[in-house]
Design goal:
Blueprint (H helix, E strand, L loop, with lengths): L2 H12 L1 H10 L9 H22 L14 H15 L8 E9 L2 E10 L5 H4 L7 E8 L6 E7 L8 H5 L2 H6 L4 E5 L19 H22 L3 E9 L1 H12 L5 E5 L5 H8 L8 H7 L2 H7 L16 E6 L7 H11 L2 E5 L10 H15 L3
Parallel strand pairs: 4-5, 4-6, 6-7, 7-8, 8-9
Antiparallel strand pairs: 1-2, 2-3, 3-5
């Protein structure tokens, strides 16, 4: 990291607490002297700290071409729409399943190659082709059982996901089998092709289309051994889960946690931390042309196939990463149940109330014959 970047990082980190307090002061019911108010400060500051670190510890933002050069691809994708861009995946072909024993946890890591068969508008840009994929499995010896497919957020995909999703309890106490697909560019796939997400708007779309296809392939693989399939997505994974829930009738229930909308626009909203160095890229990522490109991965463009009583959205009222408006807009479009955590994006992961809501949601599904 160069001196200029180190100075920028230090300056932005120094502003974490002031920005956090400023965000909370916009809420009429925030009391900084109460225990709840102090917890909210910590949670909002944690959001600011995480998003600042994720933004500035990555490479400086740049576009591979002027935004106007995306116009042709944008028009082609917009004409195809969500249904035209997301093709039904080929059956998953297992390369290997490796048992893993990690203390009190025993699970399996399954590897497979997957080709999402991208449409020509994306394939022509070099994003198509097979990639090595992975999914972590928690399976009971008997079956069939209800399954939970859990899709992680940005910067995740490692073993911490097991703790974040409280998989041990869901597996042992609720009786679910659990599949945890690793998204492209994350966890053990971090240094493999394709890179995802970043500041190439077309690569971001191709990456999410690939992730959706991989999750659907996993669903096809687990379906014969399932009594019901629940799908959950966290942050970046929420958009993947939302799209799958609108495309795949095998999904019986869907839960989205601190959801995002408009991946490229969301990234653009956080690039200001780079200062003037990101102004051109930020404006391009937020442009109408890139919005058209992104429209084929827009959760608002699909209607979820599970019935309303099997749709759950968990938002964080003081979310500084995905922002509360995403949950509000998604609920307006989707209906179902909307549950609010009164803190931040990261903080909801540690909320007992959110966990209780999750267990109610899954518990109802586990009763399905």
């Amino acid at each position: 990291m160069g001196l200029a970047n180190a100075h920028r990082l230090a300056t932005q980190l120094g502003g974490v607490l002031p920005r956090s307090v400023s965000a909370l002061q916009q809420s009429d019911d925030w009391n900084p002297l109460s225990g709840r108010g102090m917890r909210q400060v910590v949670e909002v500051a944690l959001d600011e700290l995480v998003v600042t670190g994720m933004t500035l510890m990555s490479s400086p933002p740049k576009l591979s071409r002027p935004v106007d050069e995306y116009a042709g691809v944008a028009a082609e994708l917009a004409a195809l729409g969500v249904a035209g861009v997301h093709r039904d995946p080929q059956p998953l072909q297992v390369k290997g399943i490796r048992p893993v024993n990690a203390g009190v946890l025993s699970y399996e890591r399954m590897s497979y190659d997957h080709d999402p068969q991208l449409v020509s508008a994306l394939a022509a840009e070099g994003h198509d082709g097979p990639a090595a994929a992975e999914v972590v499995l928690f399976r009971h010896d008997d079956g069939p059982r209800p399954w939970l497919v859990w899709v992680h957020g940005a910067g995740q995909g490692g073993m911490s996901d097991i703790v974040v999703a409280r998989v041990g309890r869901i597996h042992r106490e609720l009786g679910f089998n659990v599949a945890m697909p690793v998204q492209p560019g994350h966890g053990p796939r971090k240094d493999r092709w394709p890179a995802y997400p970043g500041t190439d708007p077309l690569a971001n779309v191709a990456g999410m289309v690939r992730a959706v296809s991989e999750v659907r392939a996993v669903i096809g693989w687990i379906e014969p051994d399932s009594t019901a399939i629940a799908l959950s997505g966290l942050s970046l994974g929420s958009a993947v889960a939302a799209l799958v829930a609108g495309l795949d009738e095998r999904v019986d229930a869907v839960a989205l946690y601190t959801p995002i909308l408009g991946l490229n626009g969301m990234i653009a909203r956080h690039l200001h931390r780079w200062g003037s160095a990101a102004e051109i890229v930020g404006a391009a990522m937020a442009s109408d042309i890139v919005s058209d490109v992104t429209s084929v991965i827009d959760p608002l463009a699909v209607h979820p196939l599970p019935p309303p009583e099997r749709r759950l959205i968990v938002g964080a009222w003081h979310d500084q990463m995905a922002y509360r408006q995403c949950a509000l807009d998604l609920h307006e479009r989707w209906g179902g149940e909307l549950y609010w955590h009164d803190g931040g994006h990261v903080g909801h992961l540690f909320s007992g109330a959110v966990q209780a809501q999750t267990e109610l949601f899954l518990g109802a599904l586990s009763q399905v014959p």
